[in-house]
Amino acid sequence: MEFPDRHDLGELIEPQETPAFARVRYEPETDTLEKPLETVRSELATLALDDLESGATIAVGVGSRGIHGIDDIATETVSYLDEQGFDPIVVPAMGSHGGATPEGQREVLEALGITEERLGVPIEATMSVEQIDEIEIGNVMTPVYFSAAALEADAVLVINRVKPHTNFTGRIESGCCKMLTVGLGKQRGAQAFHSTALSEGYVPTIVGLTNAIRESVSLLGSLALVENFHEETGHIEAIPAAELESREPALLERAYDEMATLPTDEIDLLVVDELGKEISGAGMDTNVIGRYRVINAPDPESPSIDLIYARGLTAKTKGNGNGIGLADITRKQAVEQLDIQKVYANALTSGSLAKAKLPPVAPDDEIALRVALNALGGYDPDTVRVAWIENTTDLGGFYVSKALADELADRGELTVIERAALQFEEGTAVFEV
């Protein structure tokens, strides 16, 4: 597809004076776990490992998110299980991610530093599933699918972060229960889950499927991680299988208190350098940008961001730009990074079609910002509220327009490092200090 070039769009919208910017540091108080790997071992020791025979195979489910230190945590987990006399294997627990192919899911894990060479155990990446049950959730009969490789093991353990979900709010959101029901359901399970969740609600669907899985699978439990504002490990806790639904809500509440957010709820334009699946399941954390864009789930009340400009994709997302549809404008460079097969596999499985839509495509930063600032209406460089971030995870430092910097100047958690001017080099934005 051909998109309009600078000449075509430049004649439609006159150049505007860009606002002055400041580089700021944002450092809310937060806690970091000092010895996470030691905690992994001590927590795993609380699970019912004595109930398993020596040499038992334990399938360790690992997902596709950019969890801090997930490679070290996964390595420590399989090492501990091996030392206890068990035979661990790794099973990708990521639903349809990686283009819903074994090769793609291995590729995702490799990007996270999780390989057979690193862990010293096999990675069983087959997409094969078995239907282990069919249950009624609300008014819908829902098949329950589970990874065939995990079912062949003597026990199943999942490692996942507990955090706010990108599509909904509830007492259980993104965590170990969802990894069991969606991640280890592979593509078929993920699709069945989302189809039911969109009509009957996410929490009832997660709870119903978790109960069904526990009845049919030798489930050891989970290793739950909670991250702090800086996306570092703040808490690690092993949860026995029987306590998953009862324990996750408290960890979710902690995750909400610790999560990375912007220091203001009112922004005219948010510029995001990169989006990707390791940043968020939606490419950009919907709790940071204030947009879910899914059926039967209203957007969060805050933050309120009028326009979003997404500039590109991370290298680790391997072309999966699912979430680009949450932006109001993007640029040609981002579109050239897209692997449409991966985007569609993700969006069609989840039913969140809006996240795969393509917003207006500008040839470069200069034209994109012209379009965005003009679309705000009544643009004034002295009063416009712009935040320019690397991604929705790394919020410890970013650029803000002068008006926003002045407004936030009295916040003790925010420090202006230096003033900056936005310049363009052959259409690409560059900050000069």
Describe this structure in words.
32% of the residues lie in helices and 24% in strands. It has 15 helices and 16 strands. The chain folds into 2 domains: 193 residues, no CATH class; 223 residues, LarA, N-terminal domain (Rossmann fold, 3-Layer(aba) Sandwich). The strands form 3 sheets. It has a 9-stranded mixed β-sheet. A 5-stranded mixed β-sheet has the order 3-2-6-7-8, with helices on both faces. Helix 11 links the parallel strand 9 and strand 10. Helix 2 packs across helix 3, helix 7 crosses helix 9 and helix 8 crosses helix 9. It is α/β, with parallel strands linked by helices and 433 residues long. This is DUF362 domain-containing protein. InterPro entries: DUF362. It comes from Natrialba chahannaoensis JCM 10990. Pfam families: DUF362 (PF04015).
